[in-house]
Amino acid sequence: MGIKDIVRNSVAETIKNNTLSAATIYTALGTGILFSLYIYGIYYFSQKRNFYNKQFNIVLGVLPIITEGIILAMQSNLVISLGMVGALSIVRFRTAVKDPKDLLFLFWSISIGIILGARNYGLAFAVCLVTTIMLILLDLLPAGRTSVLLVINMDKEGKETDIMPLISKYAKRPKVKSRSRTAGGLDLVVECTAKREGELLEEIAAAGHVVSAAVVAHDGEAVYPNE
């Protein structure tokens, strides 16, 4: 028996063994719906405190079913599987993921669809269970204090050397992010991490030559006190 005969027999045996019955398809899709609703619910409850994107959550709920259908089709027919590989290889997605946590849910949804398409329901349950536990545990860990931006406007007589020691009383290692000297005065943007932001703002506003002061929170990285 030559190599061509071995490959031909192997392909024929694979197609024969992977022929899907209607009961198998409906069972797989029904299980996929349950897992999809589970991921939908986890994303909804985990993002309630943040900016919840319902459209993205709908995508997460439907994506496992579509991925599972693709895997099932690839298992049932070798020709279809080759065609899908070629078709999916030219698809390009340009939508940017704004939140890194959304990327986690996106891969979770796709991976569950692949696992269910392989009809490994025990593995899919284990992945969902472990992922949920990890999300809860890691969310409980302290994230540290995020830095804030102090926007300070001073008059013509104002100097940076007069205001920085005052900021250093409440914050460790303040950094000047922007300084602008105009005919009207001095504008400073200082990044710092302070425990008592309200007291810091009040004292800066009461300092000499300060016209206005504001505290602006931003989405930067958390800074730990021991750093």
Could you give the topology of this structure?
Layout: H1 3-17, H2 22-46, H3 54-76, H4 78-88, H5 100-117, H6 121-140, E1 145-154, H7 160-168, E2 175-182, E3 185-192, H8 197-206, E4 210-223
Antiparallel strand pairs: 1-3, 1-4, 2-3
Helix pairs in contact: 2-3, 2-5, 2-6, 3-4, 3-5, 5-6
Considering the chains and any ligands shown, give keywords for the structure.
single chain, 227 residues, alpha+beta, Alpha-Beta Plaits, 4-stranded antiparallel beta sheet, 8 helices, 58% helix, 18% strand, elongated
Your description of this structure?
This protein is α+β, with helices and mostly antiparallel strands and 227 residues long. The protein folds into two domains: 3-140, no CATH class; 145-223, 2-Layer Sandwich (Alpha-Beta Plaits), CATH 3.30.70. The chain has helices spanning 3-17, 22-46, 54-76, 78-88, 100-117, 121-140, 160-168, 197-206; strands at residues 145-154, 175-182, 185-192, 210-223. It has a four-stranded antiparallel beta sheet with strand order 2-3-1-4, with helices on one face. The longest helix has 25 residues, at 22-46. It is elongated and about 90 Å long. The N and C termini lie far apart (69 Å).
